[in-house]
């Protein structure tokens, strides 16, 4: 059956006119895991993202592989697919155990930004039986190979500066960064490049980013989008040729930001000045949409810009403040919402969540209730009452979640009709509304974080880099800089303000220091005791390490490799969502195969304690068991003598 479906999809593509296949790009959004739909009427959503510069093709579709309970006997059982609350197709579920089909996604109903496909299922075993909504045999299951297939063209014409970060960062793509960054070897220019990396992370907060960077003297005319960040005097003639005489005269106290189309359809973004400080400031403002919206055309001479940004996370936030509408619920769906707490903060004991809601007065109030789940686990139930149907509330203490950096809440209403009237149920006349005036009260206190389990704290504080000084060796390569840029793109996921970073060749006692060491140079780190210092400096050839320690109120972080190419092994643990949760302790050491071990260091700095993983414990247990066995054999032999 699946082969037949794929065959018809292929024919659909072949006979569709005006298909410029060489320009078409494809992205598939997979379901990831099987989704079971229970009850009479229920639904689930799949979301997909459309970049502002995509032209979506009518060849897009959603493919579904659905298993259906053989107990479903009602002929009108059906699945209806909605795109952004507008129906795009209906499928009959009666009389089959499996359906594999594709429904076209009309491009006219696709909007820029996030789109929602809703799969709404109505299914009945016996239309006279009001218990179908709790009958476990009343199910359909969407299999994990279901997916949304999106075809689009990149709109690559008439791009201006206000479109930044496009086309250099393409939100929504599997590989968002589509640019080669070129810079000089000066520390100020590298500072600007690291700011740009954090800006990319700010604009694409949920994706792992891979920054491609080279020094200008390594560039070989590659066919890519290019961002050039360099002091004017360090530019080569190719890039100087894009600068007019008028622009050149202004570079003493201004920075040029210029977008240049290439004949190959690519773009060059040139950021330069004679003042290195102006270059840094010019890059920083690219992280603010408010600034970009005021730009016109493809070039500007930047003189200065003051950005006022409130980074305070209020103690009281409604669901409306968090971007949620009222949740209109019935007996089959549920409300899910969440809030993030920066890792450098801890909730105070009096933090709470207050749910505000109302519900139908046609309920059997002896049986109807709501259930609250927090972070995936059932937390409490509360009965509903006729006296409070027009306005009810529930206050939940968040004290036991004070150390969590993320709180997800799910609210499900269990609604039972007063009369055994299935029509009321099927017509969704039983309802509950969770109001977006519901409140999170989240008073916080700052905590000094000196454990990598809290990463990206303390490198980020208050939605900005935390007064950070990056210390670099003199012989840093573009390959090493690439992985440092990836780390800063990860830090950028947590920031709103582009500021508080310096790059230098030595420690700064007035700042938090992040030092990169790529050899066994005898660098004195006075904040570390002898044991820790020797541990970092005594790494094996195939190892790299990352450490975090207190330094008289500020902190010192050291990223150490023996061979510079090993930075990639530790770098992925500091820049990839799949790996950062594995960080722990004050020292993490990674070998060439990516295996990580961590150490916890006592506050006295007098002892480093190795934390054993399961594999190590298993080996110890095996050795002890072997010793016991040998002793038993020895005793048995001795007794037999």
From TrEMBL:
InterPro entries: Cell_synthase_bac. It is found in: Cell membrane. GO terms for biological process: UDP-alpha-D-glucose metabolic process. It holds the Pfam family BcsB. One of its GO terms (cellular component) is plasma membrane. The keyword Ligase does not apply. Keywords: Cell membrane, Membrane, Transmembrane, Transmembrane helix. The keyword Disulfide bond does not apply. The chain crosses the membrane at residues 616-635. It is a single-pass membrane protein. This is Uncharacterized protein. It comes from Thermobrachium celere DSM 8682.
